[in-house]
């Protein structure tokens, strides 16, 4: 029996923790830019504020050019006369009753009116920004999923591809095999040992490690192996010898070990390796 050299191939691959850490770091780096791109949030960060009393005073002094009243948020957006045309409005917290302010605005002929809440505009701005963030998140999740699949494939790379039949009977008996009577008589001892091993162990006999079936294609070697499993009522493994040959050193040996481990877990059983000369 040939001893296969044992060599483990390891490939450094990113772990899930490192991937999530990188994604979190990228998100934290992008958030300041996202907040800066949002016009509503940017304006809120830059604008100053006035008190309700200061608004009344500036209105009386004629320093107020325009006022937008937002009853939903209880905020007045004030545009002063000395402000630049493109300057953002100054927020002022309103009271529950603002009749005095409205009367002064009317007296000073200040342009004022009710407007919708700024939350809707902020939500639209955030939605626009999220439209290009969501594809990035989707790409990260796709990369994480592919990395997980690659890890699972790497772990199963050395697993055996043996075709395993768990049924107690293969459906084939010696009566189904014709023309090889001598071979069937010799293999009957293997069947007896599989069914009644105590008869042999009592006299110190040992079961052969394997049986070599030699013959040209089509002479019934595979059928004989299935007949042994069928007569003994044991599981049947079938694999081609060429499947153990791989371009990477150690993978074939790993598959041999995996195959025999499965067979040991389901002993007694039959392992049939076809084209072993490969």
Which radius of gyration do the C-alpha atoms yield? 41 Å
Major beta-sheet overview: 4 strands, mixed
| Helix content range | 40-55%
CATH level 1 class label of the largest domain: Alpha Beta
Low-confidence parts: 1-13, 35-47
Average pLDDT confidence is 74
CATH topology of the largest domain: Rossmann fold
Put simply, the count of helices is: 9
Instruction: Look at the helices and sheets and give the structural class.
Output: alpha/beta
Q: Termini distance?
A: 15 Å
CATH architecture of the largest domain: 3-Layer(aba) Sandwich
Q: Could you characterize what this model shows?
A:
By secondary structure, the chain is an alpha/beta fold. The chain has 3 domains: 16-36 and 121-155; 38-116, Signal recognition particle alu RNA binding heterodimer, srp9/1; 163-274, Rossmann fold (3-Layer(aba) Sandwich), CATH 3.40.50. It contains 9 helices and 7 strands; from the N terminus they run H-H-H-E-E-E-H-E-H-E-H-H-H-E-H-E. The chain has a 4-stranded mixed beta sheet with strand order 3-2-1-4, with helices on one face. Strands 5-6-7 form a 3-stranded mixed beta sheet, with helices on one face. Strand 6, helix 9 and strand 7 (270-274) form a beta-alpha-beta unit. The longest helix has 38 residues, at 118-155. The two termini are 15 Å apart.
């Amino acid at each position: 029996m040939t001893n296969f050299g044992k060599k483990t191939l390891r490939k450094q691959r990113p772990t899930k923790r490192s991937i999530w850490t990188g994604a979190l770091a990228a998100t934290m780096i992008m958030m300041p830019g996202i907040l800066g791109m949002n016009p509503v949030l940017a304006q809120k960060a830059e604008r100053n504020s006035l008190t309700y009393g200061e608004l009344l005073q500036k209105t009386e002094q004629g320093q107020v050019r325009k006022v937008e009243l937002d009853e939903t948020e209880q905020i007045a957006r004030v545009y002063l006369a000395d402000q630049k045309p493109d300057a953002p409005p100054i927020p002022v917290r309103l009271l529950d009753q603002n009749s005095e302010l409205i009367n002064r605005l009317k007296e000073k002929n200040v342009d004022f009116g009710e407007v919708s809440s700024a939350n809707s505009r902020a939500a639209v701005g955030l939605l626009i920004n999220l439209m290009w963030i969501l594809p990035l998140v989707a790409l990260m999740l796709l990369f994480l999923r592919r990395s997980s699949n690659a890890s699972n494939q790497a772990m199963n790379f050395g697993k055996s591809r043996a075709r395993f039949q768990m049924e107690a009977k293969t459906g084939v008996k010696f009566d189904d095999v014709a023309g090889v009577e001598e071979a069937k008589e010799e293999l009957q001892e293997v069947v007896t040992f599989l069914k009644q091993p105590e008869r042999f162990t009592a006299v110190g006999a040992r079961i052969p490690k394997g049986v070599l079936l030699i013959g040209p294609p089509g002479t019934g070697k595979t059928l004989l192996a299935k007949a042994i499993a069928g007569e003994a009522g044991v599981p049947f493994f079938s694999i081609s010898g060429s499947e153990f040959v791989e371009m990477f050193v150690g993978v074939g040996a790993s598959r041999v070990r995996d195959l025999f481990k499965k067979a040991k877990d389901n002993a007694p059983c039959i392992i049939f390796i076809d084209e072993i000369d490969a």
